[in-house]
Model the fold of this input.
Amino acid sequence: MTITIRPRRDDDLPALGHVLVEQQPASGYPHRDPLPMPGADFVARAGALAAWTAEVDGEPVGHIAILPVRDPAASGEPELARLWMAGHDLPAERLGEVGVYFTATHVRGRGVGAALMRTALDELAARALAPCLDVIPTGTAVDYYRRSGWVEVGGTRPSWLAADAPDVIAMILPRD
Done:
């Protein structure tokens, strides 16, 4: 199996939308009600700093993006930014959010997700941005992040969260 990580292209969006929908019953991601339309409405985030597609043997099987963190005064969901800022003790403009991170179920446990995360973290480091993310404590994601060195800095309930979902956990990856 050959894993390739490359910048996401617009022509990846239909295949990535299919992957997002396919993996959702197993992961519960995305945790929105109603479920967003895949593709340009969810995967291709306006204002993303960078985004990548994972391919296995030429087939798009995963995605990750890095997003700017907005100052809480200018954000529609200010609590996440506040938690991340306090956790890193940095202003919003020095933070970068890892998001829109998913892989197809048939490639899980084969290094695709890890390769995507390494790519995003390398780019955040190159931009001198401190890594942040949010996660719903369902499935195995929180445990994966904790094992990978991510630290919980609080919880919140964003407006987009499904009514029956647990609160979102804000996490940071401390600097060495």
User: Anything to note?
Assistant: The chain is about 25% helix and 25% strand. Residues 13-27 form the longest helix (15 residues). Residues 8 and 52 are 4 Å apart (CA to CA).
